[in-house]
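Researcher: Here's the sequence for the chain we discussed earlier.
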Amino acid sequence: MNRPSVRQLECVVAIADHGSFRAAARACSITQPALSAQIASLEAELGAALFERVRPRARPTPLGVEVVARARELLAGLDAIGEVARGHGEPLSSPLRLGVIPTIAPYLLPRAMPRLRRKHPGLRLFLREAQTPELVAAVTCGELDCALLAAEAELGDLETAPLFEEPFLLAVPRGHPLAEGPPLRERDLQGSEVLLLEDGHCLRDQALSVCRRARAPEVADVRAGSLATLIEMVAGGLGITLLPEMATAGARPLPRDLVLRPFAAPAPTRTIALAWRRRASRTRDFQLLAEFFRREPGWARPGGRPGKGRGAAAGTRRARKRPRSRREPCAGSSIRATLDERRRGAGSTLVRRRPSFRLHALRQLLRRGRGGTRRGRRDPHPGPPPRARR
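Model: Thanks. This is the structure I predict for it:
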């Protein structure tokens, strides 16, 4: 039996990923008849069908599922040959495909990426945000090189490098019984309704474990798709929730009706880790990247950690009031302001423009009140001539 070609393996994986021959042909940049010929030739060599043709879908058979899994491994091994060559060059100087979970990406990346680019200018990052199961599958099959995620999740056979421990904070609405007092313990959550993320987020499983220990029920009919939505729900009084600390240190200010409370030691935490395939050829690059995130986590705010329970905006940046500037040059838009400025003789510069007829009349009345003007003296601010009556 002849060995399957690389092109045939690519076609098999493309059909499994896209679910149809037409979409797979578009992804492989070939025509649909050419892709069908590749699959037919492979099925003839194997003596069995790999896909069930149920228009417009194509589903892999039990044999096809195993062939697709082996094809992914073989293609990942072929990609590793190029990585071996790139690995002998400068560290972190070649393209790197990084996956990040949604509860980390918007808070860590905006602060850490500029420093990473300055430290490694030759590095070109391709970022992908997805939930943990999707990222684990993508790293395993070679679609991604590594991923930033929580180490407590199910990571399969991936190798991990722990980066840092991140504590959880309790977010409650203003006026809640837990909004004030000493640092909390898990048992203080007993009986409180907790809002959680929807299924698929590893943060949901971690928060659920805390709720089970504290005997705190979940709000079953309300689930959020992101931490931003979860924060707004808590501020609206729908319940309480657990937030990772980096989510409270973002550039976006938190709602005024939200109160953040820290936990007493030992506080519930999650471990942020970098994960990659075992025996990967770029292990040195991944270890350097992990060391960068350990030394410069990026989400920590200068001047202290958030979440000290100081009220609705605890742990957030307060907008500094803009100092009042000196009076800007006036263009005659405000008659009263212009006349007051002239009376005080202030040093601010006035933009001289042709005044309106009403402003000219008010100036004349002002001069008459001071004793009038010298006869024959020319007015330095002549107004427009009076309009002729019809």
